[in-house]
């Protein structure tokens, strides 16, 4: 009986030892070293779409008649002939004509400034540095021609 107690006690201690140590008593493989991380900076140029400029505007000719007291009948006859027997007159005072001319000059100035801004940003976002705005305008004309043919 004494041997049975000793065996039970020995078995109990062995079981307790295995429970407390768990898997740590088994041989562990060596941990792999952490991989070396290299940071590489890569520069990529962003390709920005450069849409072509709109085609040039196509303005129609406008004919102005100066009508005075001396040529009124002659101009009315001319207008009736052009308009199949009827005519309508639109009048502008000299000051209104100057205002219209000023407004057209302002539109022209504004459009030119907008075109300069567009060319500046096209050149700033373009990768090539050996071309100027004249080359760009020529390429734009070619692009417009190609688009019209399609």
Description:
The chain is mainly alpha-helical. Among the domains are: 62-91, no CATH class; 92-149. 53% of the residues lie in helices and 0% in strands. The protein is built from 4 helices and no strands. The protein starts with a helix and ends with a helix.
What features would you highlight for this structure?
rod-shaped; 150 residues; mainly alpha
Number of strands: 0
Largest beta sheet, briefly?
none
Rg measurement, Å: 46 Å
Structural class: mainly alpha
Low-confidence stretches: none
- Counting copies of identical and different chains, the oligomeric state is single chain
**Looking at the structure, what is the overall shape?**
rod-shaped
Order of helices and strands: HHHH
